[in-house]
Fold each of these.
Amino acid sequence: MRTAVRKSPSRRAPAAAESPRPGVSVWLRLMKAHNLLLREARRGLPAGMTLPQFDVMAQLAREPLGLTSVQLSRRLLVSAGNLTGIVDRLEREGLARRAAHASDRRATLVRLTPAGRRRIGRILPRHVRGIEDLLAEVPRADLQALRELLGRLCVTLETGPPPGRRILKEVR
Amino acid sequence: MRTAVRKSPSRRAPAAAESPRPGVSVWLRLMKAHNLLLREARRGLPAGMTLPQFDVMAQLAREPLGLTSVQLSRRLLVSAGNLTGIVDRLEREGLARRAAHASDRRATLVRLTPAGRRRIGRILPRHVRGIEDLLAEVPRADLQALRELLGRLCVTLETGPPPGRRILKEVR
DNA sequence: TGCTGATGCTTCAAGTTTGAAGCATCCGGG
DNA sequence: CCCGGATGCTTCAAACTTGAAGCATCAGCA
């Protein structure tokens, strides 16, 4: 932090100091906020349940028909190999079960067991309340703005990078 | 995700639809943005260097005197036990070294070796450029706003929870 | 001086995470 | 029908991560 460095009185001085590298700054703060939130979010979970396990169960809870590993992997943005282990543990605990996919013998449908459904039903509301409480001190306007900006950021990150790079040609 | 929904230009009305649970929504989007950024950030690193190792080296690069594990742990928001392993690996690669602390025999100062300094000197600018490129498509105003909002969010998260209680009581 | 709690670090078990490799299956031509 | 690429999943090695336990040291205090 540094004492105000007044830039030239350009058109519209933002409320806060201009950052020479806004990208890096946003990146660092995003990391930090993420870590702080993560730490608190973990706290609210009952012993023996990890955040990744909770995430998988929360997704499964809204899909009674079950989800394939690939679908889970896309929703949670983790690798497929990762899900194998997480689902293994959920299965070992009797909270989820793998079932054959009706029309694709490669695929596996992961579903919650009744016990899993009961468990997530108890945990989820408490968890949601915990998150809301955590952010209760943040002004509502800030939350709305953050929501909007982060939403746009995600869209940009999902569709933006590939132009010159990796996947797809220029959709431009 | 949805394309822009233009609301009437009433000043008070937020640009986007009100969310019944803005906290959870912010939380989910923050996670998503974080994961997307993380994925890309990893890409830019040379083979054999992981993001945590990079983070530690980047911190050490600006502290020629070295940092203790606890200092590193506070800056990077990871556990102390975690750092043991990361520094072990850096040391094994000849990029960092542990030295006795002058006045506290419990503590250890971690410093970059000359090789480490050379390496981070080459990687860091490229990495910074990569992040900026990644976010180049995001409007500058969005970045400034995000920077500011995330900064305030971090402050709230850091100072908010502890005072009254570990995990929020009903602050209402 | 000696006690006591705090602090710095390491160790450990369990879980998460990735990326690559491998296998089975699917699907769209030829 | 058969083949070659794409897809779904698992396995594996290596690394990260936490939280708890343990040890050495420090700092305040009686």
Note: The first helix of chain B runs from residue 22 to 43.
Amino acid sequence: MHLNHVELFCDVVARRSFSKAAEAAGISQSSASQAVQALEERLGAQLIDRSKRPLELTAAGEIYFDGCRDLLESFRRIEDRVLQLQDKVTGRVRVAAIYSVGLLQMGAYAGRFRELYPDAELDLDYLHPDEVYNRVLGDETDLGLVSFPREGGSLSSIRWQDQPMVLVVPSRHALAGSSKIRVAEIAGENYVGFTEELTIRRAIDRWLRQSHVSVNVVHEFDNIENIKRAVEIGAGVAILPEPTVRREVEAGALSQVRLADVRWTRPLGIVHRRNKTLSTAASRFVEILLSDEDAAVESGNGAPRASRLHKNGKSANGRASGRRVPR
Amino acid sequence: MHLNHVELFCDVVARRSFSKAAEAAGISQSSASQAVQALEERLGAQLIDRSKRPLELTAAGEIYFDGCRDLLESFRRIEDRVLQLQDKVTGRVRVAAIYSVGLLQMGAYAGRFRELYPDAELDLDYLHPDEVYNRVLGDETDLGLVSFPREGGSLSSIRWQDQPMVLVVPSRHALAGSSKIRVAEIAGENYVGFTEELTIRRAIDRWLRQSHVSVNVVHEFDNIENIKRAVEIGAGVAILPEPTVRREVEAGALSQVRLADVRWTRPLGIVHRRNKTLSTAASRFVEILLSDEDAAVESGNGAPRASRLHKNGKSANGRASGRRVPR
DNA sequence: GACGCATCATCAATTTTTCCGATAGCGCTC
DNA sequence: GAGCGCTATCGGAAAAATTGATGATGCGTC
């Protein structure tokens, strides 16, 4: 029996689609169909009910899926154990990041990871926050990079960074010159904010309320890029994580103003399934995220750093564990 | 990755031989070699040290083997669960029986099993008792049929039959006419017995000692067939399980005499690995062994029957469970 | 310590399996 | 009910496992 076929079956089930799973596996839809059929033939039982759209699992399929899910996980762990013995880091790490984390920072981390562990494969996706959680929960990704990380249930999270929130204003705005202001000075400004379904919107609302400041919301977007564009054209001011506007500030397209009397930060975290032990490769990726010195600079406040995840008992030779790559 | 390759690797390790494992799997030695090499290449690690004869596992191989052993077992269970859903009994049952059980009785049981479950594969081997235990312990067989079953450690046993021991004499012997005698009458007879390493020999010795009877041992054999031949040619008398001499007694080649004042029996048991759940097919085979009505007749004493192993919650249609095959 | 035996690796040829692309059929949605 | 998206099916192509022959190596034996 081909374990690849089992893996494919599980992916078909997870995605509720043969074609999606086939594409993800880099094979043709036809091949995916045949692979699952081979499994069904071997068992002499229908696993998937294709007469429904989207497809559904049969009772047998349910049982088989549950079992194979664990089986594949076990197999991965076994291989990992052997590979660890020789300090090899291989396998695939699937990372899903929210747009505002991903586009700005992940490139550098990914490069570093690929440089240190050329044998490992890194899949990076930039998604909507909800989709990141879905993937983690559905076991379609190993690590999720999100802001205001949720915990509990089958989710566990690792604290990663705390990004200071700054006021962002058009470069010709009255406040553009100031390096620091008090929150109260924002009151009544035209404001470009996040849409209400986003956690960060609710956090900012709460912060403003606590400071007894209210603003005039003129636009709402569900992503930072659009907010920045709106501020650039003078639609209003915004409150955004400092690292996400650094490039525009340096280029002069936007101005940032620190808020002197509050410590608003956007916490970023790495979420993963609680019960699933991370693969060595995944652990190493987390390690790179956490060990990065830039991050230490960026996380402006004195919050304790997340402790190192990876503990390798017997790494004697100079492997990556403690290594720093010069920026 | 091919699960077959993993299975093959495990078999190679268990047998400490590529060629043996290849033969057992029904493939060429070349193929076996390449299959294991494929695994090693995938892991980038040597699993087996071929420079030793017989081959040895490397540290990586040790880890991999332990993991894969369980993995294969898990996979088997998963498939079994699915198959059970549709009342299918497939898969392989490997049975190792001691000669004296096997040759006489197993044919009928095997036939019955193959008739009831044509999709399942039954491997029957007749071996020396020690070898039966080795196979069970080494996980090379699912069920072992032995006399005086050992328990404990990783072994578990199911009571199967208690065969009454009878005195067997040449057909022209002075006692040949009697249907019953007292044990004391054996005293001083020329006796053909088992070799000392066999459990049954030690049991008989103990019984004779308890009855304060001693005999004149003229020959020792490690199997029942040879003992019968020796008795046939008049070398002496023997004490053997009744079912094993029934054919010769009916044919007139030997005479059997019941022992009136003792209840000596040879217990037969089904041994298997304790922690390993039996496959459905294996359970059904056990069921056939236990449900047989002949066995009830043969087990002369009133010892409680082993309870039925198999419990299938949802078998509604008239499947084999309760079915009896007329003798 | 050389010989023979058993065992395993290697190689090219062949068989078997898998995979692909095109096409047809079917369910779902509008 | 037409259109769209999805999956099964089919023949041919590609990839893979398997084989048989041959060579290398460890191990016991004389």
Note: Chain B touches chain A through 27 residues (CB under 8 Å).
